[in-house]
Amino acid sequence: MDFIDPHIHMVSRVTDDYETLARMGCVAVSEPAFWAGFDRGTVDGFRDYFEQLTAVEPKRAAQFGIQHYCWLCINAKEAENVSLSREVISMIPEFLDRPGVLGIGEIGLNKNTKNEATVFLEHLELAIKYDQPILIHTPHLEDKYQGTRMILDMLCDDSRVNPDRVLVDHVEEHTVSEVLDRGFWAGMTLYPVTKCTPDRAADMIERHAGERLLANSAGDWGISKPTAVPDLIFTMRRRGMDEALIRKVVHDNPVEFFSKSKQFHYTPR
Amino acid sequence: MSQQTADEILDASYLEVRAKVLELAAVLDRLDRAPGGTERSPRRDQLTQAIEMLLADDPDRAAKVQHWFSRQYDPDWKTKLGVETPSTK
């Protein structure tokens, strides 16, 4: 089955992973800007990173017939440096018209601090000013519930934000309903130990009928599995779930959500 | 609604769940054997109570356990952090 991984950090993966993904049916990926594993010190460090996301990765993906899209921001972990964050936010418009740039992301919270909230709100202003869709990172483990509610508060406090153009990622059992009930799209991350397993994701799909739900691997430089979406497909099939429902979650929903960006020019094969 | 019957789910997951229960039992034994003791550790307490939550007759155990391991949401967080959003300006 053709699938799209809507959240994967390919800059951290070897080229073999693109080949494996292609062999397993991956037709497109979207790569949000994220933390490199260390705090970058200058705006030029981010400029180079955005160059890699918008110019290098699409070429690497294309070798295997995979369409590569991306999202731009300074992530929540680096938002404690508010002055650098503001420099990066000012620089992002240089890249917004590049092919394949879908919007602003993954913005969000990490430890739910004042500086993170300030930088999140300034990213929202940027997205609104340039009419961009938004991809959101929610915190990990014990901070997830509190952080997700804070993010939803900030989004819902602003009448200019259209929930139908916002994907809230890394939802789990205790956050998925609130995200969907408020009209946002929700992403489930299949990531060992700290996030969701294929079976638990299939449970959430069963409960919410797959409406506005996406699944991703969030494959990155940590212990993660870039082929987690095919694992979900396999799990859903093993459980006898309908092929149309599987396709909706792993292909049709990403296409529908990404189509809210004018930069999404997807060609199904 | 699940596509599988309860019996089918049990057939498919019995050995896996059995292994997970054994793993839990072994970790608790290991903690008991280890020097230092964890009887007064809040994390040990949190794990014990989470395990007890699994025995409840409740269709939302996964969400309840997630909440049990989560920090509370404070609706007054914007005032406490001094954060202004369009609705508070």
TrEMBL record, chain A:
GO terms for molecular function: hydrolase activity, acting on ester bonds; metal ion binding. The keyword Chaperone does not apply. InterPro entries: Metal_Hydrolase, TatD-like, UCP005295. Keywords: Hydrolase, Metal-binding. It comes from the Bacteria. The keyword Metal-binding applies. It holds the Pfam family TatD_DNase. Gene3D superfamilies: Metal-dependent hydrolases. Belongs to the metallo-dependent hydrolases superfamily. This is Hydrolase, TatD family.
